[in-house]
Design a protein that fits this description.
Length: 396
Amino acid sequence: MEVKEQIGRWRLILGQESDKRLSTMTDLTLTQEQDLMDQALASIYNRTELGGFGADASGRGAGRGPSNPQITRWLGDVRTLFDKELVTVIQNDAVTRCGLKQLLFEPELLENMEPDIGLASTILMLKDQIPKRSKESVREFIKKIVEEINKLLEQDIRRAVTAAVNKRKHSPIPSASAMDFRMTINRNLKHYNPELKTIVPEHFYFFDRTSTTAANKWTIILDIDQSGSMGESVIYSSIISCILASMASIKTRIVAFDTNIVDLTEKSEDPVDLLFGFQLGGGTDINKSIAYCEQFIENPAKTLFFLISDLDEGGNRAGLLRRISDMKEAGVTVISLLAIADGGRPYYDAQTAQKLAGLGVPCFACTPELLPTLLEKALKGQDLSQFEKTMKKGKP
């Protein structure tokens, strides 16, 4: 990289105040594209007390060109000039640094926003303030994020759960939903047709689904903390909950709590509806929520209980630990998934986490991409200690 290009990059980082010093090193002339970048960045990072968003150069500190009259135009410039990852960072900084939360509910603005889980969390926390004219735009914005995460997770979650709940026994009764794809492919490899470039199976294998009758189905309970720190975790949990709820081979319960409890199971057909059922903010009473969830444990040996929380208990912590201990002794598989923030950083009460770990409860933050693997291992009754160590080390 040439010296002049390097200095140009530093100029964009440091703003107009660095002009005098940097110009002594080289002929400091920004290109047209760099000048546009400078103006876009200055609107966020070089505001004076009097210079609001989109102010002119004298009130802005860094940009030299004409002011941006519309925030939507600014967003368009940012999306054109910067990589997608940087766009997300700049958008979030615009919200937090420039007090643009009230503008998130402008329909024209939302249409130009790059889908981002951090902004979605902010919107959900403010959803009760959404004006009528913006409700549909907000739903569409949230829907974009839901669809992106769904594409990432749905296939793997379905595969993981199917692999875990289907038995090794096979049945002569054909059923597309019960097909054992692995065995069917392995047993028919010899029937590969070079001309068609595909396997032409002569025999199909199907799992015996008699073990997935109502009495023998796995029950998965997701007990989700909806206190203020849980934004990202709530979004991921909602989407995962809806995927699980759509699978006939398991029963899924979705419970949200702060100091109150809301059963959201009936909203699981639509992840956007489910998300809007959460009330982010408020206190935390984990013990109370677990007491509510206990009624759904019909067959402890076939129950998987996820406590998704920052574990900052505002209720009865001794009661919480006692209930978890009783669940474990009864045969329930209990897993504590810690709150995640900033793209995967765990956020939690270390003392409560330590107490749960002492009860033999795996307690860690799990990235969404690894949740299908966790589900499969848990449903198969495999030891999760190694998986837990891997997640705590932050390894993929």
